[in-house]
Specification:
Pfam families: Phage_holin_4_2, Phosphodiest. InterPro entries: Alkaline_phosphatase_core_sf, Phage_holin_4_2, Phosphodiest/P_Trfase. Keywords: Membrane, Transmembrane, Transmembrane helix. This is Alkaline phosphatase family protein. With 697 residues, the protein is of the alpha+beta class. 46% of the residues lie in helices and 13% in strands. The chain contains 25 helices and 22 strands. The strands form six sheets. An eight-stranded mixed β-sheet has the order 8-7-9-3-10-21-4-22, sandwiched between helices. Helix 5 crosses helix 13. The longest helix is centred in the N-terminal third of the chain and has 31 residues. The radius of gyration is 28 Å and the shape is globular. The protein starts with a helix and ends with a helix.
C-alpha cells in the first residue's frame, strides 16, 4: 500500500473518530436538555457510564445510518417523492430508537417524538463536522460528492476518464438577461461575476449573450426547441386543439410526452442528449437515457420510467435528507413571513400567496434544487457526455413576489451557490467540463389584468359574445413549472379539473385560456380555425371589444381576404404579410415582434383569436391574464430576452452583428458546441490559452 493510500486511510479514520465524538457530545447535550430523552438507568449512573452509553448509542446510530438508510430509501422509491421527504424525520427517528434498543449498555430510551428531534440534530451535526474536516482533503471531498451521486450509475473500471470535455447546461428558469446583469452588479451572484471578470491579466472565462424567444415565451416552447430542435405548433403554454378536443398544457405529463413525440417526428432526431446524456428536472428528455424529474416520462409506469429514481441520489444520505427537510420547513416559514409582510405593508402589485403555495415554493427552491444539483454532480463524476438541468426556483418566486423583488434576489444568490458547487465538482470530475448557464425566458413585471380592470379576460370575451358574465370571476391556473413537478411527485394529474372538461360541457361557448400576458380564444363547436369574417358574423362586437380595450395591445385572427390580420385600437387592421416591428399595433413591442407573430400564425393549432396584453415600453410592464405579478408567455419586455452564459473556449454563439432568435437556433448552437467538445477544440486568441483546468468551469 503506497504512502498516499496510508495517509488517506489514517485521515479517514481520524475523521470518523471526530464525527463519532461530535455525535456523542451532541447526544449528551440533548439528553441534558430534553426531558423525554435519557441515557442513564432509573436509579442514576456515573458520568463515565453515561458517556459510554452516549458513545455506544452514537456509534450504533452512525452505523445504522450508513448501512440501513440507503436500503430504506431504495425500498421507499415506490412512495411519492413528497411523501418520502416528509417521512425523512420519522425514519431517522426510528433508526435512533433502534440504536438505543441495541445499545450494549441498555440504558438509553426516548419518547418517539423526542427521538425524531434528537436524530435530526445528530445527523446535521455529523454532516457539518464531516464536511468541515474534509474541506482540505480532496479525496474526502470527492468521496462525499460521490455519496450525493446516483448510486445506480455504472461504476468506472478505474481507468482515466475521456480526455475530451463534456458539457453541462444549467437552465435558471425565468431569469432574464437584465435581471442577471443587475444581480451581478449588486454582488448577489459572485460566481457568475468571477466568470465574467478578467483575472490574472487574462480575459473572462465566460461571455454573456442575450437571445430572443418566440412569441410563446415560456418553458414549454423554449425547452422543447432547445432539447429537441423544434417547437413548431406550440402557440402558448396552454391551448385548445379542435381535432382532439383537448387542452394541451406544457406542464401536464401527457401533453409533454405528446409534444416531445411530435418534435422527434418532425426533426427525425432523438434530441440534444442522445449520446451519453442526462436530463434533470426538465419538461422533456432531450433523448437522454439518464432521467430524473423529467415530466414527459413521469406519467409512464414500469421500468421505462426512471425519472423518479433521481430522488435516491439525494435521500440515500440521511444527513442530506434531514438538511433538505429542515430547509423545506424553513422555506415554508420564510414565505409565510414574506407574504404576511407584503400584505401588511399593502404592497402593490400583489397576488394571493396562501393555500398550498408556500409548500410549492419550498419544493421548487429546496427539494427540486437539491435533487437536481445532486443528480448533475453524479453525472459529472460519472463522466457523462452532456447534461441539461433546469432549476425552477427563481421562476416560481418571481411569479408571486415580482421579478425584481427582494424575495427573488435571495433565490438568485442561492442559485449562484449551486453554480459554485458545480464548478468545484468539475475539478474532481474524470474529464474536463464546459459549464453553460442559460435561461429559457425572462419575466415582465406588472399587475394582473383583472386587478386593473376588475374583469378577467374570460369574462371580457363572454361580454363581447353577449354571454352572461358571472359576478365573481374565476382565477386562472398558475403556469409555474414547479406546480407540475409537485403534482407529478404526488402522482396527481396536472389540472385534472381543467379547461378541457369545461369545454366538453359547453361546446357552444368559447374556451378562453391564459399563458401569462398571452390569451387564446377558441370556439370548440367550429372544427376549423375561424376567420375574422366568421367571427364578425357570429359575434359582431367581440373583436372590436377586444382590440379597443386599453388592457390589450393587439389581436391576431385569420382572414379570408388577407390570410391573417393584426387588429389594434381605433380600427387598426394590418395584414400579417405587411406587419412591421415599429408601426401599427406592434409598435413598441421591440424587434422581431412581427416575425414572431407571423410564425405563430402559421401553426396548425393556433387559436381562433390570439390576444397579447398591453405593454408599457417605458416601465417594461405587462398585464398578466393569470394571477401573477411577474409573468411570461407573450410579447413585451424582459420576458422575451433571456440570457446565455457560455465559456469563451467554445465558439461564439453568433456573429457580432447577428442576434440569436428562437429556441431552435439555440439547439443548433448547442449541437455545434457538443461537436467542438468531441472534436478538435476551437483555437483561442493569443494570450488566452490558459490552463484547461481553469477552463473546465
Amino acid at each position: 500500500m503506497g504512502q498516499g493510500r496510508w495517509r488517506s486511510l489514517v485521515s479517514g479514520v481520524w475523521r470518523s473518530i471526530a464525527v463519532w465524538a461530535a455525535s456523542t457530545v451532541t447526544m449528551l447535550v440533548l439528553a441534558a436538555v430534553l426531558p423525554d430523552f435519557r441515557l442513564e438507568s432509573a436509579g442514576g449512573d456515573s458520568t463515565t457510564r453515561i458517556a459510554v452509553t452516549a458513545a455506544a448509542g452514537a456509534g450504533v446510530f452512525g452505523l445504522l445510518s450508513s448501512l440501513v438508510w440507503p436500503l430504506l430509501v431504495r425500498l421507499l422509491l415506490l412512495v411519492p417523492a413528497l411523501v418520502l421527504g416528509l417521512l425523512v424525520f420519522f425514519l431517522n427517528g426510528s433508526l435512533l430508537l433502534i440504536a438505543l434498543r441495541v445499545n450494549p449498555s441498555g440504558r438509553g430510551e426516548a419518547a418517539p417524538e423526542t427521538a425524531v428531534v434528537v436524530a435530526a440534530v445528530m445527523s446535521a451535526v455529523a454532516s457539518a463536522t464531516g464536511a468541515a474536516l474534509a474541506v482540505r482533503d480532496d479525496d474526502a471531498y470527492r468521496r462525499r460528492l460521490y455519496r450525493l451521486a446516483d448510486r445506480r450509475r455504472r461504476r468506472g473500471d478505474g481507468q482515466a476518464g475521456p480526455a475530451t470535455p463534456g458539457a453541462v447546461f444549467v437552465q435558471l428558469d425565468g431569469v432574464g438577461h437584465d435581471v442577471l446583469r443587475a444581480a451581478v452588479d449588486k454582488g448577489l451572484m459572485p460566481t457568475v461575476a468571477s466568470w465574467l471578470a478578467p483575472r490574472d491579466g487574462r480575459g473572462p472565462t465566460h461571455r454573456l449573450t442575450s437571445w430572443r424567444t418566440d412569441w410563446s415565451s415560456q418553458t414549454g416552447a423554449s425547452q422543447l426547441g432547445i432539447l429537441h430542435g423544434s417547437n413548431h405548433d406550440v402557440p402558448a403554454f396552454r391551448w385548445y386543439e379542435k381535432d382532439s378536443r383537448e387542452v394541451m398544457v406544457c406542464n401536464r405529463p401527457t401533453s409533454a410526452a405528446e409534444l416531445q413525440r411530435r418534435a422527434i417526428e418532425r426533426t427525425g432526431d432523438g434530441g440534444l442528449l442522445t449520446v451519453d446524456g442526462a436530463s434533470r428536472g426538465n419538461l422533456f428528455s432531450g433523448g437522454a437515457d439518464q432521467l430524473a424529474l423529467v415530466l414527459s416520462v413521469s406519467a409512464r409506469r414500469g421500468k421505462e420510467n426512471r425519472s423518479r429514481a433521481g430522488y435516491f441520489a439525494y435521500f440515500s444520505d440521511p444527513a442530506n435528507a434531514v438538511r433538505t427537510a429542515m430547509s423545506f420547513v424553513a422555506e415554508v416559514g420564510r414565505e409565510t413571513v414574506q407574504s404576511t409582510r407584503a400584505r401588511l405593508t399593502q404592497q402593490r402589485p400583489r397576488v394571493g400567496r396562501g393555500g398550498l403555495y408556500p409548500f410549492v415554493r419550498a419544493f421548487a427552491t429546496v427539494v427540486e434544487r437539491d435533487v437536481v444539483v445532486a443528480a448533475v454532480i453524479g453525472d459529472m463524476l460519472a463522466g457523462r457526455n452532456a447534461v441539461y438541468a433546469d432549476l425552477v426556483a427563481y421562476d416560481e418566486v418571481a411569479h408571486h413576489s415580482g421579478p425584481h423583488s427582494r424575495d427573488a434576489e435571495k433565490v438568485l444568490a442561492k442559485l449562484d451557490r449551486s453554480l459554485a458547487l458545480l464548478a468545484q465538482v468539475a475539478e474532481h470530475a474524470p474529464r474536463p467540463y464546459r459549464i453553460v448557464v442559460l435561461s429559457d425566458h425572462g419575466q415582465s413585471p406588472g399587475e394582473t389584468f383583472q386587478a386593473r380592470y376588475g374583469l378577467s379576460l374570460g369574462n371580457l370575451v363572454r361580454a363581447g359574445c353577449g354571454l352572461p358574465v358571472p359576478r365573481r370571476a374565476e382565477r386562472t391556473h398558475s403556469g409555474a413549472e414547479a406546480r407540475a413537478a409537485v403534482r407529478a411527485a404526488l402522482r396527481r394529474p396536472v389540472e385534472e379539473n381543467g379547461e378541457q372538461h369545461r369545454a366538453a360541457r359547453r361546446r357552444s361557448e368559447p374556451v378562453v385560456l391564459a399563458s401569462g400576458n398571452l390569451g387564446l380564444v377558441s370556439f370548440p363547436d367550429v372544427p376549423h380555425r375561424m376567420s375574422k369574417e366568421e367571427i364578425d358574423r357570429r359575434h359582431p362586437a367581440l373583436l372590436s371589444t377586444l382590440a379597443d380595450h386599453p388592457g390589450i395591445g393587439f389581436v391576431l385572427v385569420r382572414s379570408e381576404e388577407h390570410g391573417g390580420v393584426v387588429l389594434g385600437a381605433h380600427g387598426a387592421e394590418i395584414p400579417v404579410g405587411r406587419l412591421g416591428d415599429g408601426t401599427g399595433p406592434l409598435a413598441g413591442f421591440g424587434p422581431g415582434a412581427a416575425h414572431a407573430v407571423r410564425r405563430t400564425h402559421s401553426f396548425p393549432h393556433t387559436a381562433d383569436i390570439m390576444i397579447n396584453s398591453w405593454y408599457d415600453p417605458a416601465d417594461g410592464e405587462v398585464l398578466a391574464f393569470e394571477e401573477q405579478i411577474g409573468s411570461h408567455g407573450g410579447l413585451g419586455g424582459a420576458q422575451g430576452r433571456p440570457f446565455l452564459l457560455s465559456p469563451v473556449v467554445l465558439s461564439a454563439p453568433a456573429d457580432d452583428d447577428t442576434e440569436l432568435v428562437g429556441a431552435e437556433q439555440l439547439h443548433h448552437v448547442f449541437r455545434r458546441w457538443l461537436s467542438e467538445c468531441v472534436g478538435p477544440q476551437v483555437p483561442l486568441p493569443e494570450g488566452e490559452d490558459e490552463d484547461e483546468d481553469e477552463r473546465a468551469a
